[in-house]
Design goal:
Largest sheet: 2 strands, antiparallel
CATH class of the largest domain: Mainly Alpha
Strand content: under 5%
Order of helices and strands: HHHHHHHHEEH
CATH topology of the largest domain: Serine Threonine Protein Phosphatase 5, Tetratricopeptide repeat
CATH superfamily of the largest domain: Tetratricopeptide repeat domain
């Protein structure tokens, strides 16, 4: 988050009004329409893209109810967790990319979580693994990593409604979800 403030030319924790004023000033300074040379215009567009991303990140952060005081990183991570819980994984991933800090276990864990909830299971595994390695004493990280390992090894968590039965010497899972999935697959094969 500090990088976004730096892009805007502000100290971390600047007020919303200061952020808006800095944005207006930078938007005037780097307005691509002011430049006639194509190289300068391209450079101005890139600068405005950086400024827009920084402004959006700061304002989203402030709108999420954080004050900008105290430990910005922990508040930022609470904000990201809230986005993930609300199903806004694309926004969470954009924010994590903006505040890219691969040296922190929490960043690794949250990036893995966004990938996991978006359905990128194999990619999320490496992030969970790094988080667990960086902070092995963190129970949440290690439990998630262990669960991912079990899933990779075929020990998939089963529904509490499942009733395992044997058929021909093999274990068969007969919970309602599995039955429904099988029926859908069989129906697709018949058409």
């Amino acid at each position: 988050m500090d990088n976004n403030y730096r892009i805007m030319g502000l100290a971390p924790g600047a007020s919303e009004q200061e952020v808006k004023e800095a944005y207006r000033k930078l938007a005037q300074q780097y307005n691509p329409d002011k430049f006639t040379d194509s190289a300068q215009k391209k450079w101005a567009v890139e600068q405005m893209n950086r400024i827009n991303r920084a402004y959006d990140a700061i304002m989203n952060y402030k709108r999420a109810g954080t004050t900008g005081q105290g430990d910005d990183r922990s508040e930022f991570y609470v904000y990201i967790r809230r986005l993930i819980q609300q199903g806004q994984c694309d926004t969470a991933m954009q924010q994590l990319d903006t505040y890219r800090n691969e040296d922190e276990a929490e960043w690794q864990f949250l990036m893995g979580s966004t990938l996991y909830y978006r359905g990128y299971i194999s990619q999320s595994y490496s992030y969970f693994e790094k988080a667990a390695q960086m902070e092995p004493s963190n129970r949440e990280y290690t439990a998630t990593y262990n669960r991912m390992n079990q899933n990779r090894n075929g020990n998939i968590y089963k529904s509490p409604y499942s009733q395992e039965q044997t058929f021909g010497g093999q274990m068969v899972c007969c919970d309602p979800c599995t039955v429904c999935q099988c029926l859908i697959c069989m129906d697709c094969c018949c058409h």
